[in-house]
Amino acid sequence: MTSLLAKAAVLGGLLALTAACQDGQGFATRSTEAGGADDARSMRRVDRDIEAPEAFQLTDQGLWDGRPSLGGVWVAHADVKDPERVIIRNQDNDKFVIGALFRRERNNPGPSIQVSSDAAEALGMLAGAPATLNVTALRREDVAEAPEPATDGLIEAPEQIEALSLDGSATDTEVAAPARPPEAKPAQAESKVARPYVQIGIFSVKANANDTATALRGAGMTASVNEQTTQGKTFYRVLAGPAASAAEKTSLLAKVKDMGFNDAYFVSN
């Protein structure tokens, strides 16, 4: 009799557990009643290029003089104070490219915007033929983006467990398995040095970016090629670093400029 009561208690507990699952209690489920709060938590932050005309914007004639130039895709103008990352549009043919903007050392007669050989190629410009260019500064900003649907935190497929019936025979009962907590992601290390990288150049051709990074590594520096896409077009930024101290930053920039990259400058990443 005692054994029968014990079996009945086990079965009663399993029935209550199953009823709780059916009522949505006792296991992690995704609530849809929170509305906007859940939607806000489901958004993730990503970095994207945002046009910043308030920082710099210019529409004027640009010219490539036909000579090869170092540093990848860039333009230069006499009104520039600090180097900028910009989007350059050729308004004559609607081509555009991401590049760097520098201060023009000599304001020679003719078009006010000096164009590098790589920029001219990407923009479809011919040597000695001026083109109407629009140059607009870019900024990296955090924006909200809905992530891909995740499965972590949802009820998984039920698993079979063995239970006892009142007559002592074994039965198979399906019970939902508790949800697994999402795995913690390791925190990324942050540099203690402001703007620890040196940007060598921005390239529209990946092979040119890789060749530049290889040359930097051959000179004993750490170099990386960062691929980024803006408005459906891909470009490649070559960075040296990161530097671990202010003194190392100064030394790194000096090494880069000794290799002929006189327009290199410090960036965050």
Overview of the structural elements:
Among the domains are: 47-142, Barwin-like endoglucanases, CATH 2.40.40.10; 197-267, Alpha-Beta Plaits (2-Layer Sandwich), CATH 3.30.70.1070. The strands form three sheets. A six-stranded mixed β-barrel has the order 2-6-3-5-4-7. It has a four-stranded antiparallel sheet with strand order 11-12-10-13, covered by helices on one side. A two-stranded antiparallel sheet has the order 8-9. It is built from five helices and 13 strands. By secondary structure, the chain is an alpha+beta fold.
Sheet with most strands: 6 strands, mixed, barrel
Looking at the structure, the CATH topology of the domain at 47-142 is Barwin-like endoglucanases
- Spans with pLDDT under 50 lasting ≥5 residues? 17-34, 153-159, 183-190
Strand order across the largest sheet: 2-6-3-5-4-7
Residues in helices, as a percent range: 10-25%
**Estimated structural class:** alpha+beta
Shape: globular
Keywords:
single chain, 269 residues, alpha+beta, Barwin-like endoglucanases, Alpha-Beta Plaits, 4-stranded antiparallel β-sheet, globular
Task: Draw up the topology in text.
Blueprint: H1 2-22, H2 36-42, E1 44-51, E2 57-63, E3 74-77, E4 84-90, E5 95-103, E6 113-115, H3 117-123, E7 131-145, E8 159-164, E9 170-175, E10 197-203, H4 206-218, E11 223-230, E12 233-240, H5 246-258, E13 265-267
Parallel strand pairs: 2-6, 3-5
Antiparallel strand pairs: 1-7, 2-7, 3-6, 4-5, 4-7, 8-9, 10-12, 10-13, 11-12
Short summary:
By secondary structure, the chain is of the alpha+beta class.
